[in-house]
Each structure stands twice: as structure tokens, then as C-alpha cells.
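Bug #77: duplicate submission created two jobs. Keeping one. Sequence:
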Amino acid sequence: MDFWFFNNDKTLKKAGLLDNMTDFHSHLLPVNDEGIPDIDEAVSILRQYHHFGIRKVWLTPRISATTVDTMNEWQRIFDELRQQHLNDKAIKGERIDIRLSSLNIIDETFQERLKKQKFIPFLDSSNHILIGTHGSKEPQGIMTDIQAIKDAGYKPVFVSPERCFYMDTKFYSQLRKHLDVKLLLDLPSLTGLYGPEAMKRAKMLLDANYYTYIGSDNHGMRKFYAAITEYKIESKYINKLKELRDKSVF
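Kept job's structure:
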């Protein structure tokens, strides 16, 4: 007997996941060639976010060995973007709460940047730090760098672990269970936009209840819009995502 009509798989938008969601990882600040060309484009995306029901967004441009000098301009750009968003007459009602942090890439200069506090803390408590790595190659000494974060009194939050193909189940377990590193899922990974391996890992980590936060990884509206409107997600993962959304509103 065919039970296809009982299929509850839905797109992220149709499932209502974006309602009152906090986007913990986005690249909407137009710096570092993140994909957003200017403030006007960022304001336009925030307008669409408001329409989707998203209520809070963390702008998390990357700091690495090659981009650390650009962060001197970030606060000015952020303040201008925030003011334009507040003045956007196309939005009715309460504006999105936007916050600025940094995604700190673990590379050969990471510990020096950590010591000099060349980063912007993550979350309102100011004792979290958002971290990530370049591509699929494991950075040398990554566990030492993570321990250095903890020794400095910060709590690390790892972005896009499902796209770090150098990690295996033992590595994930060590991060989450032994080092108490929080993990942040990029929603497009779950739709397959970053390939089947990233999607497989995202599902595995969701099944293991390893994620704490979710984000859009938005570098421009086209791909993110496709991720939330064109790809259906299995109902059990929709439910897990909603649980994460409701537990992690800041």
C-alpha cells in the first residue's frame, strides 16, 4: 500500500522554522568580500528576513591571517547598517535585532589574535567565541588552539562542523563531550546545497543531538532563498531544528 500522502516533509520556510528564529551565523556585513556588495543590499536582505519572521541576526564576518586588519572598520559599517535598517520605512512594526560578532578562523595566527583580543565576542554574555576552519583540511594544532580558548576563559562555538571533512565521529565526540565545544549548524548543509557529504554529516550530528545553534551562512539571498523554499527536509529533522530554535533564542 502506498502511504505517500502521509509524507510530512516540508521546506524550511513552509515548516515555519524561520518564525521567531535567531540566525546565529550570517555574512551580511559588507566586508572581506563576504558576498554582500554594500549596505543597501544588506538592508534589503534584512527586510526579507523580517518578512520571513526572523527576529534576531548575528552578523559574523570572518577574521583570519589575511583579514584581521579590516576589522577596524566593522563597527562603523555595522552602525550605519543598523541605522538604515531602523529607518527602513518598508518595514512595519518591530525591527530585527542585529548584533555584531566575528567568526574566528583557526590558522597560524589564531593564538596571537586570541592573546591580543583581535575578535568580537559572540552572544550577549561576551564570554563565547565563534570559531571555524578553512575548507576540508585540518589545521595544525587545532585542539591546542581550542584549549587555549578555554584557558583564556572563553567558551568556543564551532561553525559548520558538518563541512569539516577531516573530522570523524571520534573528533566530533571529542569536541562536544570532552572539550564542551558548542556546535553551530548551517541550514543549507541540511538541504544538500553544500553537497551530499555535508548533508549526511549534518543529519548524523542532529541525530546525536550535538548541535546547539543554527545559522544561515548567508552570503547573498539567492542561495539562502533556494535553501529555505526549494528543498524539503525530513519531518524528524524539522522537529529537531525547531527544538534548537526554541532553546537558543538570544
